[in-house]
């Protein structure tokens, strides 16, 4: 009778332990002293894509996701007190490999199983870190975007104040220089110097104008906008400029592109700046390709600007949207064009990304949402 009770109790305990293993979201793997897999839990199946039968029946398949070198290193750590109590391994991050051969980052802990002091196997428990690491990466990207937006907002306020302070004396310099030029003979001594004063003053006024554009939060009324129409108007506008005479412009615009809610003036400024940026990068010779399409979930639109210029080094991708950052020689650029683009896209609830593969050429990808209520709320309307 006692033997039957003990047997029943062992059966209950065994069922209970099997249920714990089965219900665990973590992967649980048990091996014997020779490294042969004995248990491969449902959690392990979900994380790695293998079925328990595949692993237990084929040791070589087991070694594909848990290579022998990794197994030896984990065993060394378990036998050492460097990583936790002897015979145990505190949680550490490692990479396993799923059925597709993809690397899977996991939190891994392990322990040696002993019976009466004799080692009979070991157990490893691991949890999938992919979603956690993705969330952490997304959070870091959001933090960087927030810092960038705050930096642009604060610099915008500073730029507005500086621009207004500079505008008045510049206007005075320009007026008096033009009066002086008018009263001088064209071949008089100093005429060229006065001409240069006027040219440089006009350049300063252009910089001040860009500063004011950069600091401005809105250029007009928000309404339903046809981005294809704005792009086409920009192409007509720049087509007459000398800089674009040797540049081929290709448009692949989706005729069924949904309208978005936004400021037509600001969005035209975005596309104009991107055209000018591409033309400068190609030194007036090459091809610009503009595409428009609905986002896959049809919750927004995607606009791409691709040029055949010299490209942008990857180490500069995070800097090009910063105010006053430019790769142009001194005196050739203000470093505000892409900052203005970034600010406008942010205010419209969208995003802009840059890609510049080796071999030249740069592509800017703009994503703008369709949700007018969400955007109006963001704009404080």
Task: Give your account of this protein's structure.
This protein has 381 residues and is an alpha+beta fold. It has three domains: 2-128, 2-Layer Sandwich (Beta-Lactamase), CATH 3.30.450; 132-216, Helix Hairpins (Orthogonal Bundle), CATH 1.10.287; 219-381, Heat Shock Protein 90 (2-Layer Sandwich), CATH 3.30.565. Helices cover 48% and strands 23% of the residues. The strands form three sheets. A five-stranded antiparallel β-sheet has the order 2-1-5-4-3. Strands 7-9-10-12-11 form a five-stranded mixed β-sheet, covered by helices on one side. A two-stranded antiparallel sheet has the order 6-8. A hairpin with a 6-residue loop joins strand 11 and strand 12 (362-369). Helix 6 (130-182) runs antiparallel to helix 7. The mean pLDDT is 81.
Write the SSE topology.
Layout: H1 2-23, E1 27-32, E2 37-40, H2 42-48, H3 52-57, H4 59-65, H5 68-79, E3 88-97, E4 103-115, E5 118-128, H6 130-182, H7 191-215, E6 223-225, H8 227-238, E7 247-253, E8 260-262, H9 264-281, E9 286-294, E10 300-307, H10 337-347, E11 351-355, E12 362-369, H11 372-379
Parallel strand pairs: 7-9
Antiparallel strand pairs: 1-2, 1-5, 3-4, 4-5, 6-8, 9-10, 10-12, 11-12
Helix pairs in contact: 6-7, 7-10, 8-9, 9-10
Short description:
By secondary structure, the chain is an alpha+beta fold. Helices cover 48% and strands 23% of the residues.
